[in-house]
Amino acid sequence: MFTSSEAFSSFSVDDIDKAKRFYGETLGLSVTEGMMGNLEVRLGNGAQLFIYVKPDHVPASFTVLNFMTDDVEKTVDELNARGVTTKIYGDADLADMPPNDEKGIMRDEEDRAQIAWFTDPAANVLAVVAESM
């Protein structure tokens, strides 16, 4: 039914201006204002993300967006240099997973699976993930 249909993801924020600055300036994505002041974000693969303001916004308690990278460590360093905190979980928060290091990068035993989580200004959880996962 949807094999030839394009799809997009969406989630809410509590402050559309902060979201626009974060996704556009901090993360360097293409952000345009859409209908009714909402944001349309173009990701590197051409996919679209729709971000809308919701006055009673509650941050998602799960990862809403994953960014693939060939070098998690380098990407985390770049995020940290832009003021983004990537160590948002303590080891107790990830009790069923390998521990994360001082930068917040979790690695499996073979160092193939690497992931680091961070939040947007509305406290939605995002992640940077190794392409080899």
TrEMBL record:
Annotated VOC domain ranges read 5-131
**Per its UniProt record, what SUPFAM superfamilies does this chain match?**
Glyoxalase/Bleomycin resistance protein/Dihydroxybiphenyl dioxygenase (SSF54593)
Q: What Gene3D superfamilies is this protein classified in?
A: 2,3-Dihydroxybiphenyl 1,2-Dioxygenase, domain 1 (3.10.180.10)
Write down the InterPro entries for this protein, in alphabetical order: Glyas_Bleomycin-R_OHBP_Dase, Glyas_Fos-R_dOase_dom, VOC_core
A Pfam family per the record: Glyoxalase
Q: What is this protein called?
A: VOC family protein
Organism of this sequence: Cryobacterium sandaracinum
* Source lineage: Bacteria, Bacillati, Actinomycetota, Actinomycetes, Micrococcales
